């Protein structure tokens, strides 16, 4: 118990030192995640490896709090939130950390599975990037029709972060989107530095790569930096006429420890005329957050940033939680 108290005290001290300017001076500090025991303990699938294990056997399982099609947005949170997973992932293993937090805060939350070209049900986001982005069109329309809302907030991880920008910028989504929030997004082609070792750790890469000749996985190839070869049509279309569209609000949340989107600043974008962009590196907000690519959506520090972005009228200082690579550090919080 003393260890937990000491860690909490240390985390608070670091948060004051490193993120004291994360919110206006008049904003009182309040722990924004009081349900950390309920949603932050092992056994709740509140880490990527745990959620991946569950999704292998239940590939269509909804993230906790997501896809309640009877949900009606409140006046405080009028925009439904749509979560878009990354390559080789699924809605459950990508979002079972963030989704229950958003639901607990009163948001209507939705998450889809898309882009399955492999026939392996838990291994999604493998299709052609443009075709994957097109799957957002009917899903967003369904959410708007079901909730009666006029706009949604889009949150995407990895490939999903690039897809939500493609949908907004190029597929007519801008009038339907209030803002996009991208976590470790592959907004530009990546060198994929370290992904081999990451895959070996997960005991997934070897299987996936061994099947590349037999199974169609264009998304993995299209996101790789093939310089000096031409980039894929997806990236040419997404950047040739600027990276944003007027009137839209974009946030990227990146990590210095990213082993998939490399260099990690490949996730950042530049603001064009009439657009707002906030490129955030999580370690500049919370230096003790060691989250890498897969664990970043499970970071409680990232969750707090997202809550501030979703509700500009309710800004809170960031309480700096320690987060370890891959597994996070959720067993020490409560």
Broad shape: globular
The helical percent reads 25-40%
Strand content: 5-15%
Radius of gyration: 19 Å
Number of helices: 14
Q: Based on DSSP secondary structure assignment, what is the total number of beta strands?
A: 6
Strand order across the largest sheet? 2-1-3-4-5-6
**Unreliable stretches covering 5 or more consecutive residues:** 1-30, 34-43, 330-334
CATH class, please? Answer: Alpha Beta
CATH architectural arrangement = 3-Layer(aba) Sandwich
Mean pLDDT over the full residue set: 83
At the fold tier of CATH, the topology name is Rossmann fold
Could you walk me through the main structural features you see in this protein, from its secondary elements to its overall organization?
- This protein is of the alpha/beta class and 334 residues long.
- The protein has a single domain, classed as Rossmann fold (3-Layer(aba) Sandwich).
- Helices cover 34% and strands 10% of the residues.
- It is built from 14 helices and 6 strands.
- It has helices at residues 2-19, 36-39, 48-57, 91-95, 98-104, 129-134, 136-147, 159-170, 195-202, 205-210, 218-222, 233-239, 282-285, 300-310, and strands at residues 81-84, 109-112, 152-157, 177-183, 249-254, 276-281.
- A 6-stranded parallel β-sheet has the order 2-1-3-4-5-6, sandwiched between helices.
- The longest helix is centred in the N-terminal third of the chain and has 18 residues, at 2-19.
- The radius of gyration is 19 Å and the shape is globular.
- Mean pLDDT is 83; it is low at 1-30, 34-43 and 330-334.
């Amino acid at each position: 118990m003393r260890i937990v108290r000491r860690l909490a005290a240390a985390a608070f001290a670091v948060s004051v030192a490193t993120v004291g300017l994360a919110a206006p001076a008049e904003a009182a500090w309040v722990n924004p995640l009081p349900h950390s025991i309920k949603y932050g303990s092992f056994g709740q699938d509140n880490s990527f490896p745990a959620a991946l294990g569950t999704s292998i056997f239940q590939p269509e399982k909804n993230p906790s709090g997501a896809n309640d099609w009877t949900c009606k947005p409140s006046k405080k949170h009028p925009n439904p939130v749509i979560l878009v997973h990354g390559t080789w992932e699924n809605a459950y293993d990508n979002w079972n950390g963030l989704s229950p937090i958003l639901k607990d805060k009163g948001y209507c939350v939705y998450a889809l599975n898309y882009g399955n070209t492999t026939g392996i049900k838990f291994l999604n986001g493998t299709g052609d990037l443009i075709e994957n982005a097109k799957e957002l069109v009917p899903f967003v329309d369904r959410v708007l029709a079901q909730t009666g809302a006029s706009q949604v907030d889009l949150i995407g991880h990895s490939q999903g972060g690039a897809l939500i920008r493609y949908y907004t910028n190029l597929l007519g989504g801008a009038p339907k989107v209030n803002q996009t929030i991208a976590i470790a997004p592959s907004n530009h082609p990546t060198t994929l530095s370290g992904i081999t070792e990451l895959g070996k750790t997960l005991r997934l890469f070897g299987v996936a790569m061994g099947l590349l000749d037999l199974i169609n996985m264009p998304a993995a190839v299209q996101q790789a930096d093939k310089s000096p070869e031409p980039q894929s049509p997806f990236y040419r279309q997404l950047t040739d006429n600027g990276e944003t569209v007027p009137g839209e609000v974009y946030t990227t949340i990146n990590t210095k420890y990213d082993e998939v989107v490399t260099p990690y600043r490949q996730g950042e974008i530049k603001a064009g005329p009439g657009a707002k962009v906030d490129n955030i590196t999580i370690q500049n907000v919370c230096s003790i957050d060691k989250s890498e690519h897969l664990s970043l959506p499970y970071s409680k520090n990232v969750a707090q940033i997202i809550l501030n972005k979703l509700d500009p009228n309710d800004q809170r200082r960031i309480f700096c939680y320690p987060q370890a690579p891959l597994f996070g550090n959720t067993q020490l919080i409560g």
